[in-house]
Amino acid sequence: MNKILIANIAKYVGEEVELSGWVANFRSSGKIAFWQIRDGSGFCQAVLDTKILSEVLWKESEKVTLETSVKISGVVSRHPKKEEYELQVKDFSFYQIAQDYPISKKEHGPDFLLDNRHLWLRSSHQWAIQRIRNTLILATYEFFNQNNFIKIDSPILTPSACEGTTELFEIDYFGEQKAYLSQSGQLYLEAAIMAHGKVFDFGPVFRAEKSKTRRHLTEFWMMDAEMAFADLEENMRVQEELIRYMVKSVLEKNQQELAILERDIKPLENILKPFYKITHAEAVKRLHELGSDIKEDDDMGADDETILTKQYDNPIFVTHYPKDVKAFYMKRDPVDNSRVLCADLLAPEGYGEIIGGSQREDNYDALLERIKAHNLPEEAFTWYLDLRKYGSVPHSGFGFGLERITAWVCGIAHIRETIPFPRTINRLNP
Ligand code: 4AD
Ligand code: MG
Fold first, then answer.
1. Residue of 158, 169, 184, 201 best suited for mutating to test ligand 1, as the one with most atoms within 8 Å of CB
2. pTM of this prediction?
3. CATH topology of domain 2-96
């Protein structure tokens, strides 16, 4: 008898197979029982019939509880109308009969579910989200591999800030100096492009932000990409291709998961069209028409991004932000010195920023001036300034937040559901 995964069940119609999993749901009429089995790779229905099972086995089956782990064997059949499969059970044994499972079909509050995250991961919605996240990760590696980028692993313990200094997690480093948890590997990738041309990293980053919004985590997964000899336009072109590739992968591989999440896929199918491009100045004008009181020199807040992106059916690049609201390393716009050559990519349907990127300051003196103006410790950036001394080149890069992209693709409201074990300002457990 074949031991199978539910993902492959279609190949075994009419055959007797064995599978192992958990009972995600069950009901019984007293003569016939239906168990919904989850084996990790998918879901199927097991049918237990008093006409087929021995009396002893039927009695045993009545001990089943939610999340009981089982080994089952039986014959596979296909639903006459739907792409669904059933197992006519011939035999089974329990690995363990689960105790009273705390998560039931009734509504639970978010705090309760997050306290039980170690169990909540099993529910069908959460299962679907992690599978889509996995596809997005795989697609990222595939895309860069096909486009001559190599992966460079940047450090997590760092001596200085990459983004704002107010959002740094500080660590005592052997009582001798302070270390910080990385906010982004970008600066290290800028060193690596001088050796490899095109590089990316992908790993956990940390922000000690005291924000309690639905789009902020204190630990999240960022992918940074960096390219030598690329300007802002080229940077946006690569981002657009990457995001298109990622969304197409999900549409190809995760129809079942998108259906579980009841995601309307029409907005995702728009990904084939070119993305929108507007300048920060144009965005501010648009926002004023939409009732926002954003000032010309303001950064865009989460609320502004929400109202703006609700107006669009595809991602939008917002370019040329005022220099004072952006990081020290961004290159000034030669046309308007008060702005920088940057672009944030905002996801539509109200989701907002998923990527931040820019052309980098490649001139030694201009960069040193920015480091001083931002009150950053010059010593910590000597190595970074060195890159502008030995064969400096125009270069650009960007970074995405995996959880923000996953939330948008899945169509869910809060990014804390997109990471297996979320860390936020008030949550470190489980
Ligand atoms: O815009 P950010 O801060 O850009 C950087 O860190 C650059 N150094 C990246 C680069 O150019 N290589 O962060 C990049 C992305 C954001 O667009 C957002 O998607 C995500 O990271 N992000 C967060 N995701 C979850 N929780 C947070 N607190 C986040 N902060 C940023
Ligand atoms: Mg940003």
1. 184
2. 0.97
3. OB fold (Dihydrolipoamide Acetyltransferase, E2P) (2.40.50)
